Amino acid sequence: MDRFRSTENAVLFGTSSFWQGIDVQGDALRNVIIVKLPFAVPDEPIIEARLEAVERAGGNPFMDYSVPEAIIKLKQGFGRLIRSKSDKGIVVILDSRVKTKRYGRMFLDSLPPCRVVEVGRKG
Prior knowledge:
mainly alpha, globular, 37% helix, 7% strand
């Protein structure tokens, strides 16, 4: 992280551990690109047990657990960009599910107020 902060025009690729706990203020971080919505892997033992518990309680495991958990993680990822009042930049969400799935609006509505630019596919 120190090298990223001190290197001009650096690129940092992160996995799930980068969704929280990363604090880079100022011009060192100007763009966060989210390739996929951060859904947990459903067959990991702890996640699987939680999904089964929701189902046993009569809930919908996906809508009642997976979507809310992914929304929290997306908000954390979005929050990596703005760490102080003077921070600015762009968050790009490449996962088309925010526009094509009925739950996608829930993800977008959870984010802080900001200017949204939609880029459509050509072809």
